[in-house]
C-alpha cells in the first residue's frame, strides 16, 4: 500500500516533459492515469525516483478528426472514449470495448495512452489498436516519429517506446462505410483483465471477406496480430469452415502464461472461442 | 524529498497543506484532515471503499496522489448532507437497508452521488454496471440497487419548501 518516496514534477508542455525525461534518465517515469503505475509502486514492483505527471499538459488531450484520421490525445480517459461522438461514429469498436475495461472509477483516470504504453499483455487497448490499424505519435528529444501498433508490442511491459519519449497521439483511420467489428473478452468478473480476448475489424463484398484484422489479448507475452488467421478468411467466403480455419490458426499462435485465470489449454481454447464469436459478430455488422 | 504546497477545496473548505509527493489522497483525507468516512479495503485499486468525487468525477483516492489535487475540488461523504439534511443517496441507503457493517458505504454513497448525475434514470442493469467499481461484503448488492433506485426517484421529485 505504501509507495516508496519520489520527487514529483508537473510540466505543462510536452517539450518540458521530454526535457525532464532527458535530464532525469531511467530514474524517472511518466505518470498518466496512474492506475497501473501507482498500483505497481504501492507493491514496490516499481520504484522510480521521479514521477513526471503529464495530467497538466493540454496538448495531450482531446479527440479530433483530420481528414479520414481520428486523432486521440494520449491522455484521453476511457470514459472520454466511451462518450466521444467522434469515436462512437468513426471507430465504434473503441467506444464499446472501453466499457469492458476496468470499472467506472478506473475509467475516469486510466488513459488510452497509458494502457498502450504499459505494454501489459492483459490490457485491452494493445490488441484493439492492432485491429483498428492505429499508429502512435511519439515525441523525443530529436522530434516526433510515428510507429504502427502492429509491431509496437515487443514483449511483456516492452514496447518500441524509448525511455526519453512521450506518446502524444493515437491515430486511427476512420472506419469505412460498412465496416464490421467486435471485441470479445472472457473474464472472471467485471473489472478483471481478460482470460482471453479477440479484436476483429472486417469488411465484405457479397459473401466474401475483403478486409480482416484479428488481434488477441492476454494469450501471449504481448498482444498478437494473427496474420495466418486473417489469411484463412481474406478473399474467402465467410462460412463455418473458414471461421474454424481462422480460429485454428489463432490457437496455433497462442503462447499464454498459466495463472489463476487458467492453464495453457484453457486459455488457448478460449482464444479460439473468442475468435469465432468476434468474427461472427463482426460479420453481422458488415454491410 | 521536498514537500509540495497544495491548495485544495475539500467539502467546500479551502485547505492549504504541504504534502509529501508519495502521500496517497486517501491518507491525506483520513490522516491530515481527519475525514475518516472514506475507507481502505485493498491495495490493488479494486474495492472502491476509498471513492471520493474529484472535480466532478468518481475517483479511487487510494490510486491518486494528494499532490495531484492542487487546485481541485474534492467532495467526501462528510460533505454530502446539507445543513444536517441527508442527501437522497444517504436517505436511500438508510430506507432500503443498503448497508450493514458500513465499511463500503461511504464509497458506495460517493459513487451513487455521481452516478445519478451521469445517469438520472438508470435501469437495474445500468445501476449494477455503474456501481461495479465498489465491492460490498455484507449486502449482496440487492438492497444497494434498491437504495440507488430510491435516490433516483427522490432526486426527480419537485423540490418542496
Ligand atoms: C482495478 C483495475 C482493473 C483494470 N482492468 C483493466 C482491464 O480490464 N483492461 C485494461 O486494459 N486495463 C485495465 N486496468 C488498467 C488501467 O486501465 C490502467 O489505467 C492502464 O492500463 C494504464 O493507463 P494509465 O493512464 O493509468 O497509465 P499509468 O499507470 O499512469 O502508466 C502506465 C505506464 O505507461 C507509461 N505511460 C503512460 N502514459 C504515457 C505516455 N503518454 N507516453 C509514454 N509513456 C506513458 C507510464 O510511464 C507507466 O510506465 C485496470 C486497472 C485497475 C486498477
Ligand atoms: S482502497 Fe480499495 S480501491 Fe481504494
Ligand atoms: S455494508 Fe459491509 S461491506 Fe458493504
Outline the structure in words.
By secondary structure, chain A is α+β, with helices and mostly antiparallel strands. Chain A has 11 helices and 14 strands. Chain A has helices spanning 14-24, 37-42, 78-83, 85-90, 92-98, 104-109, 112-117, 125-131, 227-231, 240-253, 264-285, and strands at 7-9, 28-31, 50-53, 63-66, 69-73, 135-140, 143-148, 153-155, 158-159, 166-173, 180-186, 196-205, 208-217, 224-225. Chain A is globular. Chain A starts with 6 loop residues before the first strand and ends with a helix. The relative contact order of chain A is 0.12. Chain B is an alpha+beta fold and 161 residues long. Chain B is 32% helix and 16% strand. Chain B is built from 5 helices and 5 strands. Chain B has helices at residues 25-32, 88-95, 105-118, 124-130, 142-156; strands spanning 4-10, 13-19, 51-54, 57-60, 73-75. In chain B, strands 2-1-5-3-4 form a 5-stranded mixed sheet, covered by helices on one side. In chain B, strand 1 and strand 2 (13-19) form a beta hairpin. The N and C termini of chain B lie far apart (53 Å). The interface between A and B is medium-sized, with 27 and 31 residues. The site of one FE2/S2 (inorganic) cluster has 11 residues of chain B, from loops. Flavin-adenine dinucleotide is lined by residues 29-37, 39, 74, 101-102, 106, 110-111, 113-115, 117-118, 123-125, 161, 166-167, 191, 193 of chain A.
Q: How much β-strand is present in the residues of chain A?
A: 25-35%
Count up the helices of chain A: 11
What spatial form of chain B do the alpha-carbon principal axes imply? globular
Instruction: Give the strand content of chain B.
Output: 15-25%
Q: What is the oligomeric state here?
A: heterodimer
